[in-house]
Amino acid sequence: MRKPKIPGALLVLFSILLSLSILPSIAVGAELPEEARLSADRMRFDSQTGDFLATGNVLIQAGGLVVAAPRGVGNARNKEVYFSEGIVASGDWRGDWIDLTAGTIELHFDQPLACTAEGEVRGDVGKISIDADKLYMKGPDISARNVRRLEDREAGIAFGADDVAGTLMDGVLTALTAKKKVWLQGRPGQGGDMADIRGDMAVYSVERGSVVLSGNVRAVQKGRTLTAQSLVYFPASNRVEAIGGVRGGGTVVSEDRATITIDLRQEKQKRNKN
Q1: For 233, which of 19, 52, 203, 211 could close a Cys bridge (C-beta 3.0–4.6 Å)?
Q2: Does the N-terminal peptide bond of residue 112 adopt cis geometry, omega within 30 degrees of 0?
Q3: CATH of region 151-274
């Protein structure tokens, strides 16, 4: 985003409310607020370029969304704001509840509304919780980098990966693709044990009701380790189905077998306790 150049001769205004004039046309969807209002202890505003600098208890309110920060810069004409130095965002995001903290947040009040949060992004959006280095949201699309944990409370599963991308509809994660250093934690079983699955890639689909993991897949549960080239996890039934050979176009690409390893020491310990 272009950082504004603000003339030093501008008057510093205290507790000023700046209208960003976000007035939707007929073609613009209802998700955009009609107006965003920015307030701060100190503010510089260039009426010719639309550039502004706000410092001290900076607060922006756009519809039901509220963002608080120590500092913010942006451009009223371009309908963009950049907050830095520790951010708290809460309220309404496309009809869902949002509660996030981050190092920086950039908002673009355009069609559709877009948000980029960076620097230890933590909190909730709809029915997912996230802990990552970067989060990007635009319309229903969502993506994140260096994801330490992304939990889908609706499905009862959690992911981690270097990169994730998916869609969020009505607060529910409907699809997700995770790549590089992927881990998945499934629902706990009757004994309280959770399936811990790792692989190179994961594809989650609410419509199919499954997560497909591929590439060096390894699943651990109740002292048993299952390895395979591909694995399908069904969150609703908490069931794992391993696929040994990978097929493409009817041709066997790999004849690797799915294998399971049982930790006999752990099993023996359980019997001794009983």
Answers
A1: 211
A2: yes
A3: 2.60.450.10
